[in-house]
Amino acid sequence: MIKGVDVSSFQSTTYSLTGLDFVFVKATQSTNYVNPHMPAQVQRARNAGVVVGMYHFLVRGNIKAQAAYFVAKAGARPGEILACDWEANTDGTFPSNAEKDEFLAEVKRLAPKHRVVLYCNRDYWLNHDRTSVCGDGLWIADYSHPAGHPAIKHAWLFNQYSAANNTDSDVGNFSTRAALKQWAGYPPATK
Predict the structure, then answer these.
(1) Domains in the chain, ordered, with CATH?
(2) pLDDT one-digit tens code per residue, 101-111
(3) Distances (CA, A) of 190 to 29, 161, 186, 187
(4) Which UniProt keywords apply (predicted)?
(5) Are 41 and 7 in contact (CB under 8 A)?
């Protein structure tokens, strides 16, 4: 397995990349929020040569507009991963299964050359999900089990396993960074 983190406006623009192979950066939420640290956080990961992913915090309603907003604001380069963050909002509401599925499909339609994955926690996957739709793969949060061993039966690609020291730590179900880059569709390195 390979190691990564995910960051948002709560983390520094100079977060540590030591020992990492990938980074997911919060890009957007709804149709009116862009992470102000995103450009610097993404550029830091790109400069280090790690695999980059960006995610959108999905809220109820205006699903196609949210997908368009995310794709436009993320500015993903070839091979960079796009993710849907499906969880409860601060008011306790959360998008339905149909909205989650529609968002994943619309992002894939708008950005067909990018891998699109679903992030959710184990409770959502086991108790709220009814369709098992997760785009090109599942990014599952499970802090109750060791890294790389989330307690689900469904195949997964990424596992968020800890939030210690204000950092969300992840592992990827890939043998090497190069394997992840190949799966994600990164262009071949030029010499």
Answers:
(1) 2-184 (3.20.20.80)
(2) 999 999 999 99
(3) 35, 34, 12, 9
(4) Glycosidase, Hydrolase
(5) yes
Q: State how beta strands 2-7 and 22-29 pair.
A: parallel
User: Are the C-beta atoms of residues 4 and 23 closer than 8 Å to each other?
Assistant: yes
Q: What is the pTM of this model?
A: 0.96
- Inter-residue contact 152 to 125 (CB < 8 Å): yes
Cα 110–118–78 angle (5° rounding)? 45
Write down the pLDDT at residue 164. 82
Q: Which helix (H) or strand (E) holds 181?
A: helix 177-184
C-alpha span between 191 and 184 (Å, rounded): 20
